[in-house]
Design goal:
The complex is a heterodimer of chains A (289) and B (267). Chain A is α/β, with parallel strands linked by helices and 289 residues long. Helix content of chain A is 42%, strand content 21%. In chain A, the strands form 2 sheets. Chain A has a 6-stranded mixed β-sheet, sandwiched between helices. The longest helix of chain A has 20 residues. A two-stranded antiparallel ribbon of chain B has the order 1-2. Chain B has 11 helices and 2 strands. The radius of gyration of chain B is 24 Å and the shape is flat. In chain B, helix 2 packs across helix 7 and helix 5 packs antiparallel against helix 6. Chain B has 267 residues and is mostly helical. The chains are: A alpha/beta (289), B mainly alpha (267). The interface between A and B is medium-sized, with 29 and 24 residues.
Chain lengths: 289, 267
């Protein structure tokens, strides 16, 4: 299953003196099975773009196609899009509202009109997926949990709809280092099990670690598109857009400045480790001569 | 989403002389204008009022379209006022016989008078809100009401409450919009169903909204305390309100207006 944005333009408050164009003539495809990272400066239109993928926002111009069918055409069942494409907003714990965790997670499946038994099963499955113990959690109030747990519950609420594409808006923002790593591993795990992931992120290190493809947004348009390797080889262009490169890339650049032989295509921690190990051994050998 | 259509107040930014006027003066002049409208006892006396308003609208460079839009919420009341007066007022000179009712000349004149009065009142007050940002309005109100401190009227606290409320309406709207979208993404439906179903559908929106409003209120109180806020006593202000030449000119023109209205009444 794939979602295609076809020349999508979105204008907020069109026609009023406050109108602003958020994205302009954007065309892109979310391919099945990929881990797509959306990068861009604040206000570059990433979130607006993300909300088009599951039809929450209707393009002012252009079309959004789900497997080739226009989702805003009359007669297209919006609930189908909402089920297939799950969207986790920034700080999703702010949307919790039910008395118990189980009820909150059940909100999505209930809206899909599933049977009680099916809902129960999905709630358990979703809670387990986000690493929470269903038996211990189900009866608790979501408001008495820790921040990290609340975010997991909110994620479970989206996962309970069993989406094939998961869109996440900065899922790790505001978490402590441990919860952050857990959250990223959780998302990576979902991706390995076959869920297509679209993740908005400000952390280039995360993008380098997990993404199979990245789209860079700038001023409402797509500025760059490609594998993380391709994107991060344009460090200067990224810097001009107010963006960063992974810290490993910076390390590489510093080393090359000092004429240390260090390959250009080094942008992940494991690659840096290998390179440094080689250099270390090489130097040893050099020193022994 | 439906919520993004709500514009708070109706401030329309241009950099006209009317916009730059002291909000205190604008509030007082609006009161003077209202007095003038009620003093006007004949259609002739409405002429200077209408001319005054037209001039002010022209000077403010607010599009006429926006002014007309401000009449929309009250259109029913204006039309009703007109119709009730036309059909139910007594008069002597019959004008048109509609078969089921006879429209009298006096009744028609009174109907026009009353509905025109309403229209002018709405236009006048809209001009104030269209040309003055809400914060400037509360600022002006606070200063105007501050003499009432003598009778222990909490002018500063009132104004501070109003400013905070106004300041947070857009924030809460944005928040509501976001929560609404998040719940819609989970398949919630806010738009269809009967009244009870719709009221029930609001729960997933209202609970998180209240939670966040209380959280924000707590944070704000903390931030204010951290900066030693202790009420209005001895506070200086960022924007010191000062009357300038244009304010005096406006006052003079308004005085002329009242004179003209009174004169028209004597004729």
């Amino acid at each position: 299953m794939q979602v295609t944005l076809d020349h999508v333009t979105h204008t907020y408050q069109a026609g009023s003196p406050f109108q602003s164009v958020a994205i302009k003539d954007v065309s892109m495809t979310v391919r099945e099975g990929e881990f797509l990272a959306l990068i861009g400066h604040t206000g570059s239109g990433k979130s607006t773009l993300a909300q088009h993928i599951n039809g929450l926002l209707k393009p002012t111009e252009g079309r959004v196609l789900l497997d080739g069918k226009d989702i805003h055409e009359k007669g297209f069942n919006k609930k189908e899009v909402r089920q297939k494409v799950g969207l986790v907003f920034q700080y999703p714990e702010h949307q919790l509202f039910e008395e118990t965790v189980a009820k909150d997670v059940a909100f999505g499946p209930k809206n899909l009109g599933l049977s009680d038994g099916e809902i129960k099963e999905r709630v358990r499955e979703a809670l387990a997926k986000v690493g929470l113990d269903p038996a211990a959690m189900e009866g608790r109030s979501p408001f008495e949990l820790s921040g990290g747990q609340m975010r997991r519950v909110a994620m479970a609420g989206v996962l309970a709809m069993r989406p094939q594409i998961l869109v996440l808006d900065e899922p790790a923002a505001g978490l402590d280092p441990q919860s952050r790593e857990d959250m990223l591993q959780l998302i990576f795990g979902l991706h390995s099990q076959g869920t297509t992931v679209v993740m908005i992120s400000h952390s280039m290190d995360d993008v380098a670690r997990f993404a199979t493809r990245a789209v860079v947004m700038a001023e409402g348009a797509i500025a760059m598109e490609g594998t993380p390797e391709e994107i991060f080889s344009h460090a200067e262009a990224l810097e001009k857009m107010g963006l960063d490169v992974p810290s490993v890339c910076k390390l590489g650049m510093r080393l090359r400045e000092l004429h240390v032989p260090c390959p250009e295509e080094m942008f992940r921690e494991d690659q840096a480790f290998e390179t440094l190990l080689k250099l270390w051994k090489g130097e040893d050998a050099h020193g022994a001569q | 989403m439906a919520l993004s259509n709500i514009t708070l107040g109706q401030y329309y930014p241009t950099d006209s002389a009317v916009h730059k006027m002291d909000p205190r003066v604008k509030i007082l002049l609006l009161i003077a204008l209202i007095v003038a409208i009620f003093l006007a006892q004949s259609l002739l006396a409405f002429l200077p009022v209408a001319a005054y308003l037209l001039l002010a609208i022209r000077l403010s460079r607010v599009p006429v379209r926006m002014m007309i839009k401000s009449l929309k919420p009250l259109r029913l009341i204006i039309i009703l006022t007109f119709l009730l007066n036309v059909f139910f007022l007594q008069g002597e000179t019959p004008l048109v016989d509609l078969g089921f009712a006879v429209i009298k000349k006096e009744a028609l004149l009174t109907a026009v008078h009353y509905s025109l009065r309403l229209v002018l009142l709405v236009l006048g007050s809209s001009l104030l809100t269209l040309t003055t940002p809400p914060i400037a309005l509360t600022d002006g109100l606070e200063r105007l009401l501050s003499p009432l401190r003598v009778i222990r009227f909490p002018a500063h606290e009132m104004a501070m409450m109003m400013s905070i409320a106004l300041r947070f309406i857009p924030t809460l709207l944005e928040e509501a919009d976001k929560i609404m979208k998040a719940q819609t993404a989970r398949g919630a439906d806010f738009e269809s169903g009967n009244l009870i179903a719709r009221a029930k559908a609001m729960v997933p929106l209202l609970v998180p909204l209240f939670v966040s409003a209380f959280r924000r209120a707590g944070d704000l109180a903390m931030a204010m305390e951290a900066r030693c806020y202790h009420g209005g006593e001895g506070r200086t202000r960022l924007r010191v309100l000062k009357c300038e030449k244009r304010d005096y000119i406006a006052c003079a023109v308004t005085a002329l207006l009242i004179a003209a209205v009174v004169l028209a009444g004597l004729l």
